[in-house]
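Thread: quick sanity check before group meeting

JM: Hey all, I'm pulling together slides for Thursday and realized we never actually wrote out the predicted structure for the chain we discussed last week. Dropping the sequence here so it's in one place. If anyone has concerns about the input, flag it before I start.
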Amino acid sequence: MQDLTSANIEIIIAEVSKANISFSHLRDELIDHICCEVENEMQNGISFENAFEKVKKIIGNKGLKKVQENTLFLIDKKYRFMKRIMKIFGLISLLMITVGALFKIQHWPVAGPLMVFGFFLLGAIFFPSALWVMKKESKLKGSLFIYLISIIGGILFIFGILFKIQHYPGANLLLLIGFSTIGLVLIPAILISKLRDENARNLHSAYIIGAISLIIYLAGTLFKIMTFPGAAPLLFIGAIGLTMVFFPIYVMKVYKNAESIKVSFLFLCIGILFFNMFSLLLALNISKGVLAFFINPGTEITKTASILENKSNSLSEEMLTDSLISDTLYKKNIIRVKTLSDELNNFIEDIKIELISKVDGIDNTEAKVKIKNPLLINSKDNYDIPMSILLGNTEDGKSGKASQIKIKIESLKDSLMSYCSGDENAVTIIKKSLDTESPIHYTDKGLPFVNWEISNFYRVIAISALNKLCFFQRNVRIAELETLESLNSGYLANNQKSINKPK
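JM (edit): ok, ran it. Output follows.
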């Protein structure tokens, strides 16, 4: 009969240690159990190495971990409770966030509350319970610090995304702190713990490459969200490092140990690869050629608005300086039409300046230059800042500047039509030019209402938002010119009637 030597027992202890069994009593019991099983196999005349390999295949490294989990689940009521909480609220929060995102895309009601509550459950209940469970199950050095940083960074990141989606103030700060915590503290801490594992020395180089690539990728994601320059190169380098360097090295090194290769492992690698490539494609800037396509229409609209403004100025000056016209009310109406139109035009112009100033992080003087030459705008594809300015932080978008534009357009429309009473053609043109009707209404089938603000500016990139604002300015000038021409023709017609009237 062969007995285990102290060296054999040390090998078994080292193997059990790889499973990160944190429950000390269970660890000792498992070591004794494996030793007994190996000795039983050795009684059949096989060597320790073969006997140990046979027992390992029966139990497996994951099997040891599962034994601990099942044991803890049976003897620890608090562990059982927290694990149930983690699973239940993880599922509920994921479901609510998914449904809320769907409602958000479709502009259906209660999208905001669903997402807010889902993210709240995720950050306030799921993460703390998951932290407790992972700490209970783990033996990783510095695990408490790592898990604490994970939950802090994760909660900040999750609520940063929530605030970003809902356009709440403080979103950028939360995302910045969350990303910094994950990228500069959590990832290095996990890397250090992995490098201390002597049983995985062959993977150390892969871990280093993976950590550096992931930090670069996270930095690129942060730069993209914050609209900082250099986002695309960082995302590209990080994605290449993860997909083209880290994963091949990691897979090849793990593959050397044939027993570690599982179908799930291969699917995991493929899934992560596709996820990174897909997220890279989504995060990259819109093609410069596509963005340039948006510039030309805006430039043409601006030119048209300028021509119309010049015509209005010439006509109003001619009407006001005509020595034959002595009607004071008539001249006051002309001045009023010009004043109201200029006020709205200037209001929209100020919004354009604010938009470009915040999008590119420049002062108003430089923003005015870029408005005249949109090719100079750097962040043409930014949609977060335009939405924040024009839609505000409410679900219906009525807390932003777009709602103010709508109110002023409707006010101008009513005023201009009052000056053209009796001129049906002019009234029709003014109505069409200054139309603020919502494109979609509630129907008997329950079709959701999409208001004017949302339909015009929801997830609209900066260059497109700028074009829309220019479009509104052009329409103001169309309505202004039509009103002035109607006033002029009306005055001339009335004056001609008084001349021809028999005395």
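AS: nice. Residues 288-500 form one domain. Residues 128 and 290 are 45 Å apart (CA to CA).
JM: adding both to the slides.
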